[in-house]
Amino acid sequence: MFDGSAGTDDYLMAWDWREAGELAGDASAVSQKIADHLNTNFPQDYVARIRDSQRAGDRDISPGSLDDWSGGVLPVG
After folding, report:
1. Residue 46 domain flag
2. Per-residue pLDDT tens over the stretch 8-42
3. Which of 14, 34, 51, 56 has a Cα at 20 to 30 A from 27?
4. Would residue 59 count as lying in a domain?
5. Rounded to whole angstroms, what are the CA distances from 68 to 30, 47, 62?
6. Assigned domain for 15 exists
7. CA–CA distance from 59 to each of 6, 10, 73 (Å)?
8. Domain count along the chain
């Protein structure tokens, strides 16, 4: 963790559980749909983006702050 929070309570406190919505279908099909969505839409330079924003001092650490990078956690539909 670039911010030094790994292994600390600060790391765990940054996690956020929220209602993200539902997708119709069986667990296997839905999990595959989510995996495909994230693999297609999440940036290849994810770690570099985190590193660079941490170094620049402008990293948004709020829960959900990366959702716009992937078009949201759940695909539409």
Report:
1. yes
2. 777 677 677 767 777 889 999 989 988 888 888 88
3. 14
4. yes
5. 21, 15, 13
6. yes
7. 16, 16, 19
8. 1
- Give the closest residue to 20 by CA, choosing from 37, 45, 4, 3: 37
Rounded CA separation 52/46 (Å): 10
Task: Tell me if 6 sits within 8 A of 32, measured CB to CB.
Answer: no
Instruction: Take residue 31 and report the two structure tokens written for it.
Output: 């999990």
| Contacting residues for 39 by C-beta, under 8 A, at least 6 apart | none
Count of other CB atoms within 10 angstroms of residue 50 = 16
Query: Domain range for residue 35?
Result: 9-70
Q: What is the pTM of this model?
A: 0.56
- Is 2 within the bounds of a domain? no
Where do runs of H (alpha helix) occur along the chain? 9-13, 27-41, 46-56, 67-70
- Euclidean distance between CA atoms 46 and 65, whole angstroms: 13
